[in-house]
Specification:
This protein has 625 residues and is of the alpha+beta class. 55% of the residues lie in helices and 8% in strands. It contains 24 helices and nine strands. Strands 1, 2, 3, 4, 5, 6, 7, 8 and 9 form a nine-stranded antiparallel β-sheet that branches. Helix 1 runs antiparallel to helix 18 and helix 2 packs parallel to helix 18. 49% of the residues are buried.
Length: 625
């Protein structure tokens, strides 16, 4: 062992140790390792940052952006509502939900898929009367398993493909991972669903960690092409029951009905007053195919503004006793129509003594003056069925506003409202959802049929998002998980240094001589188990980057097919089921499921044993040695 090998192995050991310790974030550790290689002379300074231009890094960034578009436009929410059964037992619901999570994770970031499906999982647990952990853990494992079935499903697959591209074999195609990955995923999903009843600890649901604003009251209008036009109210109520929402009133021909009969037939033009939890608001709208009554683009036409003014004037005339003369005579200066690329949702709480107290959105000409919309009101302990725009605001009300950030901030400052911490309240946008889905499918097709390399195909998809404004331009790069990008870009030169110094060959020889004893099958199994074990305690992308050079060296010294060993690394790096820190999806469910650190191994250990039992025969069959 020469000095360069000793140095790179020392840096590698320190890097893995720091990853396992967890004191510093993984991108900080990776940057430190990269700089250590440069200072030690193992990586030329001119090549220090070539990893950031690696196709795998570019593809990961592009897929994160495309996944964010599917999430924010409501495309995945709409798919979930149509794919999941609305009736049936817990086993059926859990099976469909986990399978859907695995399917989504094959084509979008699996963390995004998990975050989108978590509210649906919580609703399912509540409806079936089971602890939320029983639904959340199988779902988390299913989304992890689904990611290994395609090239873009998870970063380790892209990293493995990048290392293969550096050989004469070239990169993997979109579905090269599917035969083995699909077999493992199906077996794992089946185990997670069937065994969760006995292997997932039954923890009570913890207290909510976020603030509680109560339920929102909002209005939705039935359009002529709505699927509930002409149906009795009871059918709509049954659909809303599954989403923890209910109808508390309706408006027909400007006549308000406090408790409409369930037999009443709904017509186009009717306005329903719906009470819903904030997180379930988007799901309720998607389930009915409805739009918020007040969700008019801030850049509305002058004609729309004039109509609003007329409605305001009529309301003031008919309710003179509710509004003082000073408020009624308040000037309403015209503002030019605003066409913004950045329309956001923001919750504002009305402070005591605020200028808006006792006044409504119409009284202050909210949409005309500020170019923003009042979508919903949350009022603890009191339910009002007056029209939303005419409801007088009280201290403590929480207002759900839609518009430009600057406009919302201006309104809050002028009228004494304070913004609440941001949280995920998604309002579906059908047109943008369809656009996002078509762009994603187009990118997948370009990569799958070899028309364009994966990095180029998905970057083209990002450009499509920009041109169609699926995501506001100012927020397009916020979708990227930059610590992951820095981690990947920094570890690529480290992996190259392992190969250049011969350290990877040295580790491979040690593994073959002392453990595998020259047996390719034992070496393949050992490669899978070691990678899986490392992935349980350190970032899966880092695990893949560290293990790929060793896998190639082992295959080279044995004189066997390197694809078998690279695929073993891809599978092992994606299967982290023993701890809550092995994968972000495991971490996501730690609080909502009420889990402890030691709860994961009960289902995780059988899962990893199943992965080994299924993947080794499949690897030997699909990628023979």
């Amino acid at each position: 062992m020469d000095a360069s090998q000793q140095l790179i192995l020392l840096i590698l050991a320190c890097t893995i140790g720091l990853f396992l310790w967890g004191r510093w974030r993984h991108d900080i550790v990776a940057l430190a390792a990269l700089l250590a290689c440069v200072v030690a002379g193992l990586t030329p300074a001119t090549d220090a940052f070539v990893g950031f231009g690696h196709p795998a890094v570019i593809t990961v960034a592009a897929v994160l952006i495309l996944s964010k578009g599917l999430q924010t436009t409501g495309a995945v929410e709409a798919l979930a509502q149509r794919a999941l059964p609305q009736r049936g037992g817990v086993l059926l619901g859990l099976g469909f939900l986990t399978l859907l999570g695995a399917t989504l994770s094959a084509f979008m970031n699996n963390v995004g898929a998990m975050a989108l499906l978590m509210p649906i999982a919580m609703q399912l647990a509540n409806r079936q009367g089971v602890p939320p952990g029983r639904i959340l853990m199988p779902l988390a494992f299913g989304t992890i398993l689904g990611g290994m079935t395609t090239l873009i499903g998870t970063p380790p697959n892209l990293i493995v493909s990048g290392f293969r591209a550096q050989t004469e074999l070239g990169p993997y195609s979109m579905f090269d991972f599917t035969p083995v990955g699909l077999a493992v995923a199906l077996g794992g999903v089946l185990l997670a669903v069937l065994a969760s009843r006995w292997l997932v600890p039954h923890r009570p649901q913890p207290e909510a960690g976020s603030f509680d604003t109560g339920t929102y009251l909002t209005e939705v209008r039935i359009d002529a092409d709505s699927k509930i036009d002409g149906k009795p109210l009871r059918e709509v109520e049954q659909l809303l029951d599954d989403g923890d929402a209910q109808i508390v009133g309706m408006v027909r021909n400007d006549f308000r009905v406090i408790a409409p009969l369930s037999s009443r037939i709904l017509r186009a033009g009717d306005i329903l007053v719906i009470e819903s939890d904030p997180e379930a608001l988007g799901a309720s709208l998607t389930r009915l195919g409805l739009k918020l009554e007040e969700a008019v683009p801030p850049g509305a036409s002058e004609k729309e503004k004039e109509k609003e003014k007329e409605a305001t004037a009529e309301q003031r005339a008919s309710q003179a006793d509710d509004s003082d003369a000073e408020n009624a005579a308040e000037p309403e200066p015209e503002t030019s129509a605003r066409h913004s690329d950045e329309i956001v949702l923001q919750e504002l709480v009305v402070q005591p003594g605020a200028d808006i107290l006792g006044r409504s959105a119409s009284d202050i000409a909210l949409r005309t003056r500020f170019g923003i919309n009042l979508l919903a009101i949350s009022r603890q302990g009191h339910r009002s069925i007056r029209r939303l725009r005419w409801t007088e605001i009280q201290a403590g009300d929480v207002l759900l506003m839609q518009g430009e950030p600057e406009a919302i901030a201006g309104f809050a400052s002028e009228y004494g409202c304070a913004p609440l911490a941001p949280r995920s309240i998604l309002i579906p946008e059908p047109r943008k959802a369809l656009t996002a889905a078509l762009i994603m499918l187009g990118s997948v097709a370009l990569a799958a049929f070899g028309i364009l390399p994966a990095a180029v195909a998905f970057t083209a998809g990002v450009l499509g998002y920009m041109l169609t404004r699926v995501i506001p331009l100012r927020r397009i790069y916020e979708a990227i998980d930059w610590p992951i990008i820095v981690l990947l870009g920094a570890l690529m030169p480290l992996a190259a240094a392992m190969a250049d110094t011969g350290a990877a060959d040295l580790l491979a020889r040690t593994l073959l001589e002392h453990i595998a004893q020259g047996s390719p099958v034992i070496a393949l199994t050992l490669m899978l188990v070691v990678t899986m074990t490392l992935s349980d305690f350190m970032n899966n992308a880092a695990t893949a980057a560290v293990m790929c050079p060793i896998a190639l060296s082992v295959a080279n010294q044995l004189g066997v097919n390197p694809d078998s060993f690279l695929m073993a690394v891809a599978i092992g790096a994606s299967c982290a089921f023993l701890t809550p820190i092995g994968h972000q999806n495991n971490t996501l469910i730690l609080g909502p499921g009420g889990f402890r650190f030691g709860d994961y191994w009960r289902l995780g250990l059988p899962m990893e044993l199943l992965v080994v039992a299924v993947s080794i025969p499949m690897l030997l069959w699909v990628w023979p040695l």
